[in-house]
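Worked example 4.2. Below are the chains of a multi-component assembly; read each line carefully before continuing.
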Amino acid sequence: MTLGVLEIAKPGLLTSVQDLGRHGHQPVGVPVAGPMDSFSHRLANQLVGNEAEAATLEVTLIGPELVIEAETTLAIAGAVFEVTCDGRPVPMGGSFAVQPGQRLKFGRLVQGARAYVAVAGGILTIPVLGSRATHLVSRMGGHEGRALLAGDRLPVLARPAPRPPRKAAGLNLPTGGRARLRVVPGPQDDWFRADAIRTMAGASFRISPRSNRMGYRLEGPPLARAREGELISEPVGMGAIQVPGAGEPILLMADRQTAGGYPKIGHVISADLPLAGQLAPGDFIEFSVCSRQDAVTALIARERQLLRFAVWKDAL
Amino acid sequence: MIIRECGDAMLLVELAAVIDPVVNERAIALAAGLRGRQLRGVRDVVPGYCAVGVHFDPLHTDLPALEHAIADEAAAVAVIETPPARSPIEIDVQYGGDAGPDLEAVAVHAGCTPAEVIARHAARVYRVYMLGFVPGFAYMGRVDASIAAPRHRVPRERVPAGSVGIAGEQTGVYPVTSPGGWQLIGRTAKLMFDPSRTPPSLLAPGDLVRFVPTTGLRP
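Applying the procedure described above to all two chains together yields the following structure tokens:
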């Protein structure tokens, strides 16, 4: 097995190593982390023949410049950027072969917020507690527990994917910086006034500049509480919409803490979380309410997109 | 016991809405029992003060079977009437000075001397109710009501690793340098969390802790 290197020539705004997250250690306070848009992470991996768990690079708004020191196969999925390899445009949502010494440059962002760069065989940084996901606040995982910097060198396999380049339809990315996200109410929707759910579903919320991988602070009409006080802190998950006393909701994202003490009016459904991951500060969210059953149906539809590929992969 | 749906990928099992050692012991036991069943699709079972979060993959989980298992485990832990005796984990603390910049303020709040704050903080055996905030951060209670100073209204941007703090009737140790709003009364050299260690966290839910005043910092 020959090793190669992915060198970071320019880091971009926020580029980090992510896999499907660090599960199993939340009882001692270890956050899960992982991709903001897990669908595009998995799609990028499928395009180069990786398992879903393989680590990719998550690229945010301003992309990096990478020097590839390996003969391998790459794929980029998620946000659409203008990307070139030694000056020639490379496809988004497709795999392509690269040679040692070639330079991958991210240019203008066309649509979405976060792209995932998969390398055949995955990015082989040292796992921490069973995962390569970077958690920025606790400085855990990824490359030295932090966002990548110029000069960082990441180990990869020098081995192209054993099949010809492929393309796939990716996520239908939010257009015009606006996404509609479906929400299942609860578990503390009864902490809010009867009209709060209607208020939430009838308004546009702007993602505040004080948002990050932990969560999006949402600016919009206040969601009035029916009772004051705080909850006894309890475990929380990605997609929870928690509402602090001031009424400015926070949508919990990939780097969320394991527990929280604010009441949660609802949860964004799993099928729509990848869309949330494709939003940036200044973008808008419109919520609509759905049932848990609708949520599962939507997730099955979302998964079908990936399953089609898995079947194709096996046929090759 | 109430099972609440948190979206499509998590259930919250609420035993009661109280901070109580017996309820907490039941939550921890319920989480351990459920984890032990290794149900398909379940990703993480997380005990809190008085509730248990069950994170699962909606496409690979038999939800009725999961709810059934939760009901069984809840019935099994209902018989717990007292937390089992455990020997406390001792944590050496250098109180006051640079190590505990808020010790004097806590003494003023309590209307006593800094030495009495130290004596009262070190006199009790604390229970670890849950961990959160950052890896290895344990929420412990209960602190003597007389020294239960409220947290700072404006959190510090940088609290050094090992800082021992009070927030109301809770006490805790910051495992890594991070922002934080607790009243800092001392510091320990104990490594609270080390991912290369097994287990990585010095403290787990249900552990008992005693703080031991010391003059020098040693791990």
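Take a moment to check your reading of the output against the notes. Chain B has four helices and 13 strands. Chain B touches chain A through 46 residues (CB under 8 Å).
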